[in-house]
Amino acid sequence: xxxxxEGLSKFYRTETIETAALNEIxxxxxxxxxxxxxxxxxxxxxxxxxxxxxxxxxxxxxxxxMGTNVSKCNESSLAQIRKENIGFVFQDFxxxxxxxxxxxxxxxxxxxKTAYKRRQNIVKNVIEKLDLSHRSDHLxxxxxxxxxxxxxxxxxxxxxxxxxxxxxxxxxxDSKHRLEVMDILRDINQxxxxxxxxxxxxxxxxxxxxxxxxxxxxxLT
Amino acid sequence: MLAITNFVxxxxxxxxxxxxTNLFGLILGVTCSIILILFVYHDLTYDTHNNHEDRIYRxxxxxxxxxxxxxxxxxxxxxxxxxxxxxxxxxxxxHFRKSTESELLFNSDNLSFYESNLYTVGNKVFEIxxxxxxxxxxxxxxxxxxxxxxxxxxxxxxxxxxxxxGSTIKIDGIPYNVTLVFQDLPDNSHLKYDALLSxxxxxxxNSNHLWSINDGFTYVMMQDDYPQHGFHTxxxxxxxKHMAAITxxxxxxxxxxxxxxxxxxxxxxxxxxxxxxxxxxVLIMCAIGIFILLVACINYVNLSVVQAIKREKEIxxxxxxxxxxxxxxIGYFKESLLFSFISVTTSxxxxxxxxxxxxxxxxxxxxxxxxxxxxxxxxSFSIGFWLLLAMFSGLYPSFYISKxxxxxxxxxxxxxxxxxxxxxxxxxxxxxxxxxxxxxxxxYLQVQYLTEKPLGFSASNKLVFxxxxxxxxxxxxxILEQLNQHTAIQQTAVTNNTPWQGSFVTAIExxxxxxxxxxxxxxxxIDSNFVxxxxxxxxxxxxxxxxxxxxxxxNMSNNVLVNRAFVEASTWDDAIGKSFMAGQRKFTVIxxxxxxxxxxxxxxxxxxxxxxFNFDLSHFPKNYLQSMSAQLIVHHVDGESxxxxxxxxxxxxENGIHENIxxxxxxxxxxxxxxxxxxxxxxxxxxxxxxxCISCLGLLGLTGYTIERRSxxxxxxxxxxxxxxxxxxxxxxxxxxxxxxxxxxxATLAHFGVSYWLESFYYKDEINFxxxxxxxxxxxxxxxxxxxxxxxxxxxxxxxxxxxx
Lengths: 221, 805
Hints:
Radius of gyration of chain B: 33 Å
CATH superfamily of chain A: P-loop containing nucleotide triphosphate hydrolases
Strand order of the largest sheet of chain A: 6-7-8-3-9-10
Number of helices of chain B: 24
Helix content of chain A: 25-40%
Oligomer: heterodimer
Strand content of chain A: 25-35%
Distance between the termini of chain A: 19 Å
Structural class of chain B: alpha+beta
Radius of gyration of chain A: 17 Å
Distance between the termini of chain B: 39 Å
Low-confidence stretches of chain B: 201-208, 407-417
Helix content of chain B: 40-55%
Largest sheet of chain A: 6 strands, mixed
Structural class of chain A: alpha/beta
């Protein structure tokens, strides 16, 4: 089992009220799964994905990632786990504007202190795999939305992660590019990488192996 | 009114962190600048309170021989009458004769104090110089002998609030009639006095003294139609007519230089003068004032532009609704007017508090006060300063914001600051800041060098006190002997006045290679123990010896000791056994002492002569004898000054001397004399610190902006595995490189500035080049530390908080 949540909660507090974004969530995700999380806006999908991706912390409950209770870990341990095992794909791509396609994809390896030559080879392979070779020197704003999301997926893949968290990866794309991205994600999953995806699209969710439905901070199924 | 209140509220509510940072920097800068303006204005307006300031000149005596040049501020009392008779344009003159003592004892009823700042002067002083008279009539105030005019503070001290005119006050035992009370002179008067005594000496105004006794300062008032001049020479043949015969035409030139009254403080180069201002110091303060204001304005500009960018969307919206460039410009410039107004008014209040309640005079060595401006001047100054500040700090941000176009309309992504200008401004700030910091370090090193430089004598564990009345002089050897008997006292000596409290300036002539050679010297009379007690080193010849040199009566020894500077200024190879003339007497050099500092530390040590102290002056007229005094020096055992003082008082009482004995510590006298430079460096350090604070405030604001703008990117990088130090470098690498380069420029400029400043020092240390890399590192460290906190804060936030912004 790759991920296990037990009674996981997250609250948002203002001066006067406390809202439970996630309310005692219990969930399991196995290695090789393609899990889609669905639900209406504000139901807590992205909050859950952020906690699963270790970029936000729960307020209560336990989260086991690869057998480690990460809800007790400090920021530097989480950063280390992220670096080794996790890739991210976001709805608005989150590419760094001033870096080229190649440099954007290369970045996780730079932070992982991978040797220069090895880095170059890995990035070239990933770029070829995602059919971005002719765009490798371009800046993000010179690409179409679909191409930008391909770059984001390439960046998520470059570290060879165990799991990729995708937050509405097709939300900003037209239907042609949407299908293209989903095909890539499915291929990656078939090669063995676990994928957890938040989506509004029934079609996209159907491409996964299981669907988690959420409403008002609860998991329904 | 409501509209204004709402406008103020909106300005403050918009972004309180940036608003307060901006305002704080501006207020700090403006406050410092106003204080420095007060300082510079104070120095530039010396003596301008006199109605005839443009007609009054001080006469300085300029003379030169083949080997020496000298310009003396002191002249003889005989000079004025000659000028009045022979130079048609001289309307009147006044001569301020210095007392032979640095302090005189004033007695009134039960009060008794030593007072300094007093001169003997003729009644014309009130015609030439402007005074505000509180009591009495100036017509004949100083005509009758033994009359005295007092300043209001001195009058209040001895007579409280009563009108003292007609009362009697004893000065060194002689009763004087108080004829006039004048308001204290403004602090920016180069010649300060608290008491003016009418002339009593029969020799006063005697032209025979023209050459040998330069006993004070002569001022002339030129006729109304006299064209205004700077420093200029008059009466070219004066020397030939009046002095050539007296000095036997000894191969030198002499002329009279007129020094404009309002230029004396900063521009006179005369020796033997009162404490004067320092041009380069005023220039430095002026530059620092401008620099601090510039740094504060640059801060304002940068932070305002940052705020403007954050309001880009609002500005675009305003434009869509119908606002044009001009309206946007005016709207934003109004904010600058508001902030400048708040800064200037708050700063003026702060300056008032600082100058009134803080001991600021300890730093500036003078009283600074807003009252130096009249109310009208203060209001004009404030309004002028406000508008200037608003224009300087507000024009560019207002122009910048009004230029924002409608492309990418309503985009939520704030645009980047005009990188080149912002960075240039930040760079300029650091050039100034590190320049000021490096200058203060270099100045501090020079002051340290002077402080550690051997003084040529030992001032530690020395007590000095004055013994009144020349009739007591024959008893001095026995008093010294009694003092020496106590175990707390090691040595004792006597002098007519210690060199550090003031010495006589006199002219002598000595044989040169083929003609007479003239020289101006400082002189003090000492006993045979003085040199040893003060630990002054004899480098050639011998010390005074009681068994070989006669110290009393009319057959006084003509042997003298001279310092090394005397020998260097003479044409002698070997001084021992050589003679010179002073007036009608011939003196022979028996010893040469090492140069010792007796003026300020920055001037070259001048020629000094020690004459033997005369213990028996019974051949002098009684009233003259009574006005004389001696200074006794007691070298006590370390840590036993209290015992020594007790013993001194006991011995004096046993000898029937019950007058007010003011025992002083020589160390303390010297601390006052030599500490001006220490004040300067302290002041520089303070302003450096303020410069650093303002610059760092600006950097903090800009880094805050950069981090805010790049927070999403930082989140992405964190998600991708970037460490805290990697993010720190990402934010700062370019800034730090820029700051280090600019710091290097600032340090280099400081090097040139301090080299110029050092020119006013005769004794100076080599410039320490290590200060330059040190200052550059300081720039790097400061910028790193300033931004580290913000970077630490952003890297501690969970990435999810910034990723979805």
